[in-house]
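Practice problem: predict the structure.
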Amino acid sequence: MTEQAHHRGWARTLVVLATILAFLAIFAIWVNRQLLNTDNFANTSSQMLQDDKIRAQVSGYLVDQLYQNVDVAGEINAALPDQLKPLAAPAAGAFRDFAERTVNEGLQRPRAQQAWENATRAAHKLLLKTLDGGGPNVSTDNGVVTLDLKSLLTAMEQRVGIGGGVADKLPADAAQITVLKSDQLSTAQSAFKLLRHLPVILLGLSLALFGIALAISPGWRRNAIRAYGIGFIVAGALTLVAVSLLGDVVVGSLATTDATRPAVFQVWGLSTSLLREVADATIFYGIVMLLGALLAGPTSTAVATRRALAPYLRDPAMAYGGVAVVLGVVVLWWEPTPAMHNPWTAALLVVLCLAGFEGLRRRTAQEFPDAADARAAATLAKDRLVSVAKSATTRTAPAPVTAASATAAVSQDTRLADLERLNLLHDAGGVDDEEFVAEKARILNGA
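Answer:
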């Protein structure tokens, strides 16, 4: 095995590992953006409450909790006159349906939904504060982390208008929930710190391995970009498949009855919407890399495209002016991926695109060294048109040339030009040895 083939084998391995890391990074980004981002978490919870199926289940759950903790029939009995007290139990049963409808309608109001989002936001911030080391609102006495819900019970009683001082009647520890024990807290905090930085770590390692693959195998660079792009497309597609398959498992395990299944399915869909966005973005990046690799390839379409672009790419101002317009439209206006909403990730994507564009620009300049820049080409074409117009009436007709001789001369010149460009591509790493041999044979055979 030659040294070049050995390096190419290592490059393939590195690209495969980089693709696996990119696949894992998709889930890490989702966890970071969905579970560790308060704004996204609160927005998702608000969207859940706006869904009819989920809201109906929430209303039923709240009323069930009310009936479990409050003697509704007893409170109605105490409020009725003696002659109507026998109706207390039937009234309590009828009140359940009325309460569910009332709660459901109340949860549809903007004020209630905003209150729900605010409460979710506050709870999420408190949880993150706990995982990040605690704070004044979180107690870690006696080796446990607890949240005091006494104030929440009081507020709920005031809103419902029934409860008979339920918060005061419950024992002190009944209004407290043990979130984590001391040994669990340490593990959770370590996992939180890891998950917070895991997307950057995985993406950084993936890009680093890809960069090493490009460095150790110059003759395989275009193939490496193509393979990495295909890997991104596969990683995104596998993520979408995993979301669908896991959704069936999760919904089946959480939905205890057929009545709750639609609501659980909606919760899963809203919870994984960001994951699907990241998967779609990964596929989009893969398509961009694949198209770039094809544009730099030896196919006749790619060569013709580069030949047409060569005059414009030779002029840096015109070349980068054009790419700036394209990137501006994509990044600032279209924003096809969530990463472009973040200034830092958008800047990183722009830098990577510019690096790839500069590589294509230099390769095209090497492949077509005689191509004039666009301005010079326009001036030259204008001068030629003027010259032809002036000498049209005085120029003698050239000696007749047979069609066969003309075709042979053009064919020979075209082959020589194609062979020269193919050699330049091979020397620059645009095609590997196998592609070089195959393309050379095609040119020599006149195919």
